[in-house]
Specification:
alpha/beta, globular
């Protein structure tokens, strides 16, 4: 249900009847119940454009509004604001339609597009650490959201699997035995040991350098060792993806090596476009308004990240046919992507109608406001963080009675992982945020546990009811109406979240919905003795729609619900 679109359509009809030859401006949600459900604030802008008094414009609109359909009432306030109240009968009917629809009334896009979402991007030389958390879960949420709205989403995991360090790593893998499943259990230690050999043993260092050349020239022995290293490394990543319940698979991996053969062609095509200039031996693209050029080839002939990114952009736009390409990458890379996107468009590698976006995010900080580290200052492995989340969630659950050991184990995984993901997704993605176990595992506030509790509480109502749910939804008091209108805003919110690549729109909506339902539940009894049958059936259906909406919202975030908590 595109609620705003429906109201705007009614406003436009009033424009047409009043002979106002303009397109209706979008309404906004009212900030207080006494201001109605929505407000139209465009009379001032129209008055200035048409040379008329704004209140007179507002009066013309109200006089021509149809108050027999979606709108029940319209009032002019101040210099020309129009407060709008939605018809309770119309609301009830739309809620009934949403409840009986497996998509809760959310339509798929009329004109879906192919979207590439590039996220996670671990380096194969190290285990995933907390720095990969935000890219992985923000990217997966964006992919889930766009898929739900109807776009064809292509997930891409651009792993770092190419470069000079891999000669060192495979030389050390060969030295320790070709079965690397044991020695690669701890990638961090493996890398440190390999680097130590490289720094201390000149013969080993020379061998490593030779292996780099052999890898790049296609030597089968070296490529087999390299592939073994990549496979075992990806296995570590897949363990993390499984714990996080994200949907990245091996089929989504498009590594740096995938684009390697196209890099010389990238340079050649930039030369043909007269975009390259030599600077200190390097091949560069100088962009208007930018002091620092984009270096695409070093003086020794080597390529850089920008070269690979240009090859990837060209592949995604022209081979995959993407019309929107989203890079979920640390905000510190903003300058890099701004330049690369500009080169991609100026060179014609990416057509003008393709939307390129850097979905930037801030850093995860500890309680002191510093980057999240271990006690000894090391990097926190992501798998260790997730395991700790499950342990802490288990302690939270054990405070409640009535759970079997098996139930505690299952709930701890759902709650612990959900808590970590939701805490991250609930903030503006561009902000740094403080990682706080106590806050994220709280039953109060904007947390996943609060959402899961709200869902479980609704399920407990149905367990107590035992009977058939029938009849129609009836909108009674103002609180009931506010809850119903909030439920109908689900699609508008999802579209806004998708447009802005902003998961926190979803979490904010879910928190407001759950809080509103809790108030409704406390003030409007459902199963209490004395509630008439029609009212009980109506409120049960509203509760059911609220539960389904919470579940669907959490599902887009990659978070599970529980029936009992």
């Amino acid at each position: 249900m595109k609620l705003k679109q429906q109201i705007n359509k009614t406003i436009q009809q009033a424009f047409d009847k009043a002979n106002i030859n303009e397109n209706a401006m979008s309404v906004s949600e009212a900030t207080k119940p006494e201001f109605g459900d929505y407000q139209f604030n465009g009379a001032m802008a129209l008055a200035k454009k048409l040379g008329k008094n704004p209140r007179h414009i507002a009066e013309m609109i109200v006089e021509n509004l149809d108050l027999t359909g979606i709108l029940a009432k319209a009032e002019i306030a101040g210099p020309g604001f129009i407060n709008l109240w939605i018809n309770p009968l119309w609301i009830a009917k739309q809620c009934q339609i949403a409840l009986n629809d497996e998509r809760l009334g959310v339509n798929k896009k009329e004109n879906p597009v192919k979207v590439v979402v590039d996220y996670s991007g671990p380096n194969m030389a190290k285990q995933m650490h907390v720095g990969h958390l935000r890219s992985t879960i923000i990217g997966d949420t964006l992919a889930n959201l766009l898929e739900f709205l109807g776009d064809e989403v292509i997930r891409q995991n651009h792993i770092g699997d190419w470069g000079t360090q891999f000669g060192m790593l495979i030389a050390y893998l060969e030295e320790t035995g070709e079965d690397g499943s044991v020695c690669l259990r701890d990638l961090e230690q493996f890398y440190k040991d390999a680097k130590k050999r490289f720094d201390e043993d000149e013969n080993f260092a020379n061998k490593a350098r030779e292996y780099v050349v052999k890898i790049q020239s296609g030597d089968m022995h070296c490529l087999n060792l390299w592939q073994k290293f990549i496979d075992i490394s990806l296995g570590h990543c897949e363990d993390v993806y499984s714990k996080l319940c994200v949907k990245l698979t091996r089929d989504d991996v498009k590594a740096e090596s995938f684009y390697n053969e196209d890099l010389p062609q990238v340079i050649e095509d930039l030369i043909k476009q007269n975009l390259l200039k030599e600077s200190d031996g390097a091949q560069c693209v100088f962009l208007e308004g930018e002091e620092i050029p984009v270096i695409v080839q070093k003086g020794d002939g080597g390529y850089l990240y920008a070269t690979t990114d240009l090859a990837a952009l060209r592949y995604r736009a022209n081979v995959l046919g993407a019309k929107r390409i989203s890079y979920v990458v640390d905000a510190r890379q903003a300058g890099h992507f701004k330049q690369v996107f500009k080169v991609a468009k100026e060179s014609g590698f990416v057509p003008e109608d393709v939307r390129l976006e850097h979905v930037a995010f801030g850093m995860m900080m500890d309680k002191s406001g510093r980057p999240f580290k271990t006690r000894d200052g090391g990097t926190v492995k992501l798998v260790d963080l997730l395991d700790e989340a499950v342990v802490r969630a288990k302690d939270t659950i054990k405070e409640k009675e009535g759970y079997s050991e098996e139930e505690v184990e299952r709930l701890a995984k759902v709650i612990g992982i959900g808590a970590v993901k939701y805490a991250d997704l609930a903030i503006n993605r561009e902000s740094n945020y403080i990682f706080n176990w106590d806050k994220m595992l709280s039953f109060e506030g904007n947390t996943s546990l609060y959402m899961q509790y709200a869902y479980a509480r609704i399920q407990s109502i149905f367990r107590k009811h035992h009977g058939e749910i029938k009849g129609e939804i009836i909108i009674g008091d103002d609180l009931e109406k506010r809850l119903a209108v909030m439920l109908l805003r689900f699609e508008d919110m999802l579209e806004q979240a998708a447009e802005n690549a902003a998961p926190n729109h979803i979490t904010a909506y879910l928190y407001e919905l759950a809080t509103l339902f809790m108030r409704f539940y406390e003030r409007n009894p459902i199963l209490k003795e004395g509630v008439d049958e029609a009212t009980k059936m109506s409120r049960l259906q509203l509760a059911d729609l609220a539960a389904k909406t919470i579940k669907q919202g959490l599902d887009i975030l990659g978070i599970e619900v529980v029936d009992k908590l």
